[in-house]
Structures are given as C-alpha cells and as structure tokens.
Amino acid sequence: MKGRKKHKGFTLVEVLISLVLIGVITAGLLTFFAGSFENILRQRGQNTTNFDIQESFETQLADIKKNGGHGTEVETFTYRVGNNSQSVNVTGQTLSYKDNKVKNIHLFAANAKEIPLDIPNDLQVEIPNAKRYYYVGQSTPGGKVGLKDDQQSSKTRIYTESGWFLSDRSIGNDKPGIVPVGNIGSFGDGIVSQTVFPTMPDDFRQITKQDSGRQITDEMRGRYLTFAARAINSYGRVGNYQEAERIWVMGLPLTGNLRLHTDADLALLKNGNSTTRIPTSEQAYTNTEVRDYFNNTLYGGTIPVLNYYDGTIKQARQLIALDGNTMQFSNHNFNNGYTTSILIGNRQQTGPLLTYKLDNSLTWGLNLESDGRIAVKAVDTTAANNGGQEFVQNIKLDYTKDNSIQVRTSVKNGVLGIEVFVNGQAAYNKTLALRVGQTTHNINNGQIIFGGNTYINEFAVYTQSLSDSNIQKLAEYFRDKYKAS
C-alpha cells in the first residue's frame, strides 16, 4: 500500500500579508479614483463658470455693437514707429466678471466705432514720377509705401497694407459711370467749388493689393485712381487710409491718333506760384492754367474760364468762355485727314466757333447764331470768291442743353471733303477744290482756331478721319458726360 502524498499550502502568515497588501493597493486606487472624480466635478464647475463669463461678455459686446456703446473710460495705447513712440486714446468701458471664489476678469471694450489709429507722421505713401492725368492705354508707375527717411527697423511695431483703388461714384444717385469731377486743384481760402469729389474709402473699391503700376483700362475712364495705404500697429488697431496724389483718368473714349485734347473741367486758377480751383461765381477768370492734357502742354497767354453750379446734376461745371477771343493751334497737315470734336456748354452762343485756316488764302468755318442755327462759311481769296454763307439745314441747337459737334475732313483727288455731325447725327457735307485755276492750295501747315462768344467744355483733335462709329462714340460720351444718371 502506497503512502499518502503531501500537499503544501499557504501559511497563515502569508495569507495575512497578502490581505494587507491588497488592502493598501485598494485604498490607493480608491483615493486616486476619488481625487479624479473630484477633479472632474471641479473642472465641470470651472467650465460652467467660463461659459457664464463668455456669455456675459458676449451679451455686453453685442449690446455695444448694436447700440454703439456709451462708455466714457479712456485707455491709451502706445505703439512705436521707428525710434519714436506714438499713442492713441480709445473711449469705451471696462467689462468685469467678479467672483472672489473663482476669479476676477476685466475686459476693456471700445465703443462700437473706435477712434482710428492716427496716421503716423513718418508714414509715406506715394506714386513716384506719376502724372496727374492719364488716358486709356497708358500705364502708371508703381506705388510705394514706407517710413520717411527709410527709418523702418526691426524695432518698429507698425505694419502697413496698401493697394490701388478706383472711385465708383456717379452724379445724382451714386451709381457707377462717367463722372465729370476731373478738377483736382487744391482748395484756396474762401473758394467754394461745389465740385462732387469721392471720398476715401467710402466711394472707392480696391482693385488690387499689388504695388506695381496699373494699366489704364476702359472701365477706369472718367474716374479717380489712387494708391493708398493704412497703418496697423502691434495691437491690431487699424488706421485710416492715406492716399498718394490722386490721379484723374480722362473720360475720352478714343485716344488713337489723338493730336491734342483740352477739358475745361481741369482748368485751374493761377495764384502766385500755386493753383487753386476756380470759384463757382459765374465770372470768367483770365489768370488761368489751361492745358493740352494729352501732351501735358500749358497753353500760352490767358484763356478765360468760368465755373458755375448746375443744380440739375448737383455738380459744378467749367467752360472756356472765349468772349470774342481766340485759341489758335498751328502746324496741322490736313492732307492726312482730320476730325475735330467739340462739346459746347448749355448757354446761348454766337460767333465763329471753329475755323480751319487751311492756308493763307483758303479758310472754312462754323458760325453759331443766337437762335441756334449753324452757319457754314468758306472763303477762297485766290478765286475772288468768299464762298458765301449757308446754314446747316433742319438743325437748330438747343442752348439749354449741351451740344456735341464733330467736323471730319479728308482729301481725295485734289478735293477736300468736309462733314459736320451734330449730336451724333450727320448734318452737313461739302467739298472744297484745292486747285483753282493756276493756284493749288497747300494745306499741310494749317491752323485750327476756336473763337467767338462761345462756351467750350471740351475738345479733341484727331489726325485721322474717324469712322462713323467712332464719331458716335464721341457724341455719346459728350451726351452722357453731364447726365445725372
């Protein structure tokens, strides 16, 4: 018979030690879980408080945004430009959440429209070497913004954003269109121009954020183009836009083969070594600066210009008031074909509006009658014949409105053909023989003369016989130029 096997077990001491260890571990785990649960409860309470704070501030900020805010507290923010410090005061109120058991939070909220960041004294915005007037097809130089004297350094706590802006405002109801506000002279003491000028940035839209030069396109005609920049300091506060010198884009729709161009809206009053806008006084001023703007050439002598306020379009207008004087332009070769386009103002006129002195013995011209009729007169002294005077049939100008007149000439087989368009419609045509008997007229060095008791707002001369469609474009431009759209 085999003996019984012996089985070893845990002694009482071992069991007691195990129980003690399990108890210690369990107690530690219970303490950990209890602390974690307490932290979760505390965090949930903190989140509730944060949400309450956020809701409270957002409610107050929404009220400030809605009602503008009426805080009277003033906080001063300081920023650096170059080596100098500048400050701006902001009016608002301090929003607070007080809970001594949790936290005290204070937030300064400016009134709905904060005082803009002042333009730093040494912020410089410019278009180097830019002209004041541009035509479609031309290009401007690039814009430039920075600190004067190149003092910007790594310590500077100010930034800028810049770009090109185009005015988007027309007369009457603020819709886009051709706007005759080309006069960009400076204000003089006591001078009231009553000219409608777009304001920056309300009447402008940004067309690019690039600083490079802009190609003048058709959509820019009759509008202001400007390069502008604004300051942004390290607190994120944004300043007003600061413009470079404002550019006027000519409204003239055709620039190909353009010989000269004058727009009376741009005429300025000379004042010593400076110029100012001409007052809206109905008085013709003779100490004026009138230019051929296409060639940037100042006309010699003094040309009388009057400025008046037109209530229909709520806009000041300027007219060259010749009052029996003349404006003469030489060295025109009529063999190449010519087109002269004229916009006369809305008032009664008389006298020789336009004369072509083709050579020393042959002239042709348009005379205006007080009753609105247009007389045509040709004089050829070599044939002892003044050509007589005849009237354009079935046409009478309404002097209470603007009138557009185009004269087109061309040479073919020794004959000069002349056509007259009134407000875009063909009204008259005639031919002049360039060879009479033994005499041949040399018309390669003629003169164009404006005169009479006439009032001219704008004129352009082209070294080309323009097509009917292009003449129509000019007539439409003149028709719409002062239209309160």
Automatic annotation (TrEMBL):
Its main location: other. Pfam families: N_methyl. It comes from the Bacteria. PROSITE patterns: PROKAR_NTER_METHYL. The chain crosses the membrane at residues 12-34. InterPro entries: N_methyl_site (IPR012902). Keywords: Competence, Membrane, Transmembrane, Transmembrane helix. It is found in: Cell surface. NCBIfam families: IV_pilin_GFxxxE. This is Prepilin-type cleavage/methylation domain-containing protein.
